[in-house]
């Protein structure tokens, strides 16, 4: 496969953009080689600058659940654009998308929009601190909540593959207020509460993790977080930026029947445009300015283009579409597991809704320590073998995969066949 256009584009980008990318994971540090520069996308496929097509299991890191350039989303954007792209005033688009979110996500009475998942989690922590009058919060090792300072302690996603899970530039004073515990370890959460009496504002968690690879909560873990936060007077924040409208209409909270105090959202609710949101009970959310005294603002918050794309995307989703997507994800995972088994490769696979993942290690993987036992060198070789066969998986072992409404059974089955071929070539 000729990718010389990407090589040229990357060299040009590096001269004017640090590392040639505007988000670290895109640089292929986790797998080596040159990132592929895309020119367009349609349905389940990406097309690069050399004209090569790739079946896309990254989907812009989650948002594109409708598939790329879905006609409904494109039409909504065209109509919105002709009316102006930003007004800096309230609009009815925001109320409409807020209503759709409130109707679907069980713990949300009110929701505030911003422009990224990072803003959503940063605002959620500020709200929890303002509400409780406490400064510290608990975060789980390997969970990623965006690139704001307080979250870059033992962070997942690209912070893992660049080898800087604790970024330089984060003040020690900031880091001191982020308490780190292993994922799925409720006893460690209790110990953190007991060692920091009346100081912990919140526990923030990816209720199903996509950022140390795909890791599910053990039975009872989320319920234990709910019990512990109540017992110690802290708020429970589910970071559903990735899982919201991804694992099902009501997120992980609906699947697992555990309701947080605050939920953060992003990705799918913007249909591929920059967006974030945080919501919860009216009692907590009303502490935000202008009615309350916890500040939040944003020039492009609730932007009409992002709201329009989000509304059009959510209109395509239902319990029925999620049942269909989960069927595809399960088919993909069991097919991949069969290939790995046949080729004697240690593995652990999992899926929830339209999200999935696989590790090259003997499972089960329940936390970051387990995820780190994965054979990243084998993953890198497998990733490149798949890329050469026209399949775009995440360029890191420590990321989840995603399916869209544009993927079908034939593509899943073809992926499994190609995986067998790729693995055979990889293991030679
Ligand atoms: N929270 C989670 C769970 C995420 O997966 C991400 C991004 O991948 C974020 C927060 C940050 O979102 P954004 O990249 O839009 O700032």
UniProtKB/TrEMBL annotation:
Its pathway is: Porphyrin-containing compound metabolism; protoporphyrin-IX biosynthesis; 5-aminolevulinate from L-glutamyl-tRNA(Glu): step 2/2
Q: Which reaction does it catalyse?
A: (S)-4-amino-5-oxopentanoate = 5-aminolevulinate
Name it. Answer: Glutamate-1-semialdehyde 2,1-aminomutase
Q: Name one GO biological process term.
A: protoporphyrinogen IX biosynthetic process
Q: Where in the cell is it found?
A: Cytoplasm
Q: Which CDD domains match?
A: OAT_like
Q: Which GO terms describe its cellular component?
A: cytoplasm
Q: What is its EC number?
A: 5.4.3.8
Q: Which organism is it from?
A: Vulcanimicrobium alpinum
> Which Pfam families does the entry mention?
Aminotran_3
Q: Which GO terms describe its molecular function?
A: glutamate-1-semialdehyde 2,1-aminomutase activity; pyridoxal phosphate binding; transaminase activity
Its family remark reads: Belongs to the class-III pyridoxal-phosphate-dependent aminotransferase family. HemL subfamily.
The cofactors named for this UniProt entry are: pyridoxal 5'-phosphate
Assembly notes: Homodimer.
| HAMAP family documented for this protein | HemL_aminotrans_3
